[in-house]
Design goal:
Blueprint: E1 16-17, E2 34-37, H1 45-52, E3 56-61, H2 65-70, E4 82-84, H3 107-120, H4 125-140, E5 144-148, H5 155-167, H6 171-179, H7 187-202, H8 207-214, H9 218-232, H10 235-242, H11 247-257
Parallel strand pairs: 2-5, 3-4, 3-5
Antiparallel strand pairs: 1-2
Amino acid sequence: MSNNPWLPFDGIHNFRDYGGYAVAGGGNVRRGLLFRSGQHMEATDADLAGVQDLDIRTIIDLRGSSERSSFACRRHPDFSADVIAYDGETTSSPPHEGGWDKVDMTAERARNRMIAVYTRMPVNPAMIEMFTRYFEALADRDGGSLVHCFAGKDRTGIAASLLLHTLGVHRDDVVTEFLRTNDAPTRHILERQSLPRMEAHYGVIDPEAIRNLMGVLPEYIETYFSEITREYGSLDTFLAQTLGVDETRKARLIERLVE
């Protein structure tokens, strides 16, 4: 697949097509249907025109109510996509916010904070509901879709990972897609949007700690998978019994999203 999946937007972080991966049994995840990104608060008019051209008909916004209120997404004048969102909060400690104790935010503390986020996510009722609605939308709705949160890396990264696994993408490629966030050419947008708020809480933050908070590490997704296995027995059991991705829905997703 292409080594450059990102779309060249000026005010949206981490906007990319997460199709193109090979699937078990032959074929590839379709391009031009599955998009992911950070939030669109600073999207330029040109960005909005570019998004509009993608024929995205469904947006799954994984942010909670307070995030959507504080960081309202800009929309194209002709925007008509359906937005699926949660009525309430989806996370208790997003990385872009100050939180917890006012300690020196070292690299190790940053990593541990993120590990805690991924440890809680498998049993977070809000995320279970939103991932369920995400799969329902992709199985039932025509046109392109966009899944996003604030930074497009944690909640969004797990959503994309779960879908790619369902479609038959090899675990190594699932992890590759998750880690591609670290190569996004737009991290300055995320830092501009979130770093001043974090520094107001923690003070000066160690550069490696910033990388651990703004990017992703392999142990983040491995923590999620390990917790899923511990809580539910296996990833496939979780998908089928908790998120409603039974064999019928899985077949429908493959039919729509694999070529």
